[in-house]
Amino acid sequence: MKNKFNLYIGLALLGLASSCAPSLDELEATKGTADFSKFIAVGNSLTAGYSNNGLYLEGQKVAFPNLIAERMKEVGGGAFTSPFFSADQANGSGYITFKGFTDSGSPITEPVAAQAERGKNAQGGPLYTKYLDLIQNLGVPGMRLDLGTQPGMGSEAGNPYFERLLPDATKNSTSYLQYVGSHDYTFFSFWLGNNDVLGFATNGGVESNITNKLISLETFKAAYTAFITTLTQGEKKGVVATIPDVTSVPFFNTVTTARLNAAVEAATGGQAKNVYIATGNGTPRIATANDLFILTFPTAKLGVENALKIPYGLHPLNPIESKYVLDEGEINLVVSRISEINAFIKETAAAKKLALADVHAFLNKVKTGYIYNGVMISSAYITGNAFSLDGVHLTPMGNAIVANLFIDAINKQYGSSIGKMDISLYPGVNFPG
Questions:
Q1: d(CA 270, CA 268)
Q2: What pLDDT was estimated at residue 6?
Q3: CA-based radius of gyration for the chain
Q4: CA-to-CA distance for 212 and 404, rounded, in angstroms?
Q5: Residue among 242, 236, 244 at smallest CA distance from 354
Q6: Rounded CA gap, 379 and 367, in Å?
Q7: What's the angle, vertex CA 119, arms to CA 114 and CA 120, rounded to 5?
Q8: Which of 21, 65, 215, 255 counts the most CB atoms within 10 A of its CB?
Q9: How many CB atoms lie within 10 A of CB 35?
Q10: What is the pLDDT of residue 334?
Q11: What is the 3-state secondary structure (H, E, C) of 401-424?
Q12: CA-CA distance, 268 to 313, in Å (whole number)?
């Protein structure tokens, strides 16, 4: 049996609908009831500008809080500094870039080497060049809500993106919550909690360590309350966001059961027509359209025989491992937990009179395709405009769209008139020239 299969992802380029940009509101911008003079942004990789599977200067510059802060200057906003990698270390942690498509239509990506590593920790993980100046974009890639209340996450054995922001004297004792609370601000954005669900989902519903454990509702409520209580001391105002449905991102909508089955049937001459998966409850079965494979599923393994000559993924005795697929039962668990979490976020926002950016509702609308200011956006991999090459994080255009969601929420809650981003000025995935 052949041990190599060509996976025909079949990405169809979406035509970009265009129209004349709407005329900008010429009314004088007003701040309403909020004070934007000292704005901080609290969050994870999305807040930091992580994109294309890495944190690097080009992505950092278009992080959505940076775009918001620029527009806040119209209504009294002040300086907003991010922990940018320097120009000579612009590649940061490294990332991936798009090089085109194969003849069969599969995308080709290429890694770009890191430039900001200053060494390795005891576990062999990277340590990045320190940035200890005062900043307002406090986004830390990989930060979970539940881990944000625990000291030690900024140690060399913890989160390397947090470690680079802390002086050696306090890195072992400072929690992210304490770090956030130490800043001087008049207004905040808060978007944590994504990773507390996403880590579990992107690992196929397999819990192997603290980064991919599915957070309980009780733990979420306690940690979220701790952050919001700290951030709203002195009746500070701010904006919070809901957690997206993981099934709405390209990471789970590109390698589909139908495409895998078609590849199997073509490679075996029709001898096999289905792939088998190991489910979360341990029972192997034929994959259905309701199961979601991860974007990074190693298709080269498909059909490779084990010691018993059973082809991988083509027989229930050698199914595709659970870590590569979010099965229907796991999807229901994740979707239910996100629903519970978002209900609590909305309750908290209402009780504290905070602005609410409902990213969950918006991205569900985007999933099947949506015309936004004359541009088609969707969850299509590469061609959907909003999501970068890692299938989870945002493109510059995606950041501009999210910035507008936050700005809309702020203006609605506080009676301000912060101007919005013209998303046509920001690209989606960069195609090779």
A1: 5
A2: 42
A3: 22
A4: 30
A5: 236
A6: 5
A7: 100
A8: 65
A9: 17
A10: 97
A11: HHHHHHHHHHHHHHCCCCCCCCHH
A12: 13
State the pLDDT at residue 27: 53
In the 3-class helix/strand/coil scheme, how is the chain assigned residue by residue?
A: CCCCCCCCCCCCCCCCCCCCCCCCCCCCCCCCCCCCCCEEEEECHHHHCCECCECCHHHHHCCHHHHHHHHHHHHCCCCCCCCCCCHHHCCCCCEEEEEEECCCCCEEEEEECCCCEEEECCCCCEEECCCCCCCCECCCCCCCCCHHHCCCCCCCCCCHHHHCCCCCCCCCCCCHHHHHHCCCCCEEEEECCCHHHHHHHHCCCCCCCHHHCCCCHHHHHHHHHHHHHHHCHHHCEEEEECCCCHHHCHHHCCCCHHHHHHHHHHHCCCCCCCCEEECCCCCEEECCCCCEECCCCCHHHCCCECCCCCECCCCCCCCECHHHEECHHHHHHHHHHHHHHHHHHHHHHHHHCCEEECHHHHHHHHCCCEEECCEEEECCCCCCECECCCCCCECHHHHHHHHHHHHHHHHHHHCCCCCCCCHHHCCCCCCCC
pTM exceeds cut of 0.70: yes
- Taking the chain, what is the end-to-end CA distance rounded to the nearest angstrom? 40
Which of 80, 166, 81, 177 is CA-nearest to residue 130? 166
Q: Which tokens hold the place of 159?
A: 């989160």
Cα–Cα distance, 167 to 308 (Å, whole number): 54
394 DSSP β-pair partners: 387
The burial of 213, by beta-carbon neighbours within 10 Å (0-12 exposed, 13-18 middle, 19 or more buried), is given as middle
Strands 39-43 and 187-191 turn out to be parallel
**26 CB neighbour count, 10 Å cutoff:** 5
Which pLDDT belongs to residue 29? 80
For the chain, the farthest-separated pair of C-alpha atoms sits apart, in whole angstroms, at 74
* Residue with the two structure tokens 């406090």: 138
Contact 89/115 with Cβ under 8 angstroms? Answer: yes
* Residue among 425, 422, 396 at smallest CA distance from 25: 422
d(CA 229, CA 238): 12
pLDDT per residue as tens digits for the range 58-72: 999 999 999 999 999
- Contact indicator for 422, 21 with CB cutoff of 8 Å: yes
The residue type at 21: A
- pLDDT < 50 stretches in the chain: 1-26
